[in-house]
Specification:
The chain contains 7 helices and no strands. By secondary structure, the protein is mainly alpha-helical.
Length: about 180
């Protein structure tokens, strides 16, 4: 293959990949600014932090030190993550805000990827990702310190993985879902 043809192919491949990358980077920047602008830790997160602080300090899952354990939390896994952050010396509210924001970013990227998986053109698959990035409630819950957006992200990862599996394998035992 001659040099001009290789350059042309390289430029076409670069343009094909650069378009979505540039747009998704801009969308993630808008989302991050949105989360920072709406920055707040909701009061319910402090229930988790209190239990996490006591767990990290060796007191167990108690509301008050040296009292019987109570189940006053609704997010056991997030409580364990928060306790782990406290145990290594991190600030739980800041850590959970960052974790929520990162999971929100992953959700935006997976939303785009799901659109592409569904066969949408790149320009159309960008739209739901942008809509999610500018959604006030999504940005607020991302930085809220709660487990809402990380949970959403993990559910979307599972749905995306199932979609990839379904496209590839088309399992016979799931024929009822068709």
């Amino acid at each position: 293959m001659d040099e001009p043809a290789q350059t042309s192919m390289h430029r076409a491949a670069h343009t094909t990949l650069a378009g979505p990358f540039v747009w998704l980077t801009a969308i993630l920047a808008v989302y991050t600014v949105h989360v920072v602008y709406l920055n707040c830790v909701v009061e319910d997160a402090y229930i988790t932090y209190r239990f996490a602080k006591h767990l990290a300090s060796g007191l167990g899952l108690v509301w008050n030190p040296h009292e019987a354990p109570v189940e006053g939390y609704t997010n056991f896994l997030w409580l364990l993550v928060s306790a782990g952050a406290i145990k290594v010396g991190l600030d739980a509210p800041r850590f959970t805000q960052v974790a929520g924001t990162l999971c929100g970013g992953a959700t935006i990227l997976l939303t785009y990827a799901a659109g592409r998986l569904a066969g949408w053109p790149r320009a159309l698959a960008i739209v739901p990702a942008l809509m999610l990035a500018v959604s006030g409630p999504f940005a607020t819950w991302s930085g809220s310190g709660m487990e809402t957006v990380p949970f959403t992200s993990f559910v979307l990862v599972a749905v995306f993985a199932f979609g990839k599996y379904w496209q590839k394998e088309q399992p016979k035992w799931l024929v009822i879902l068709r």
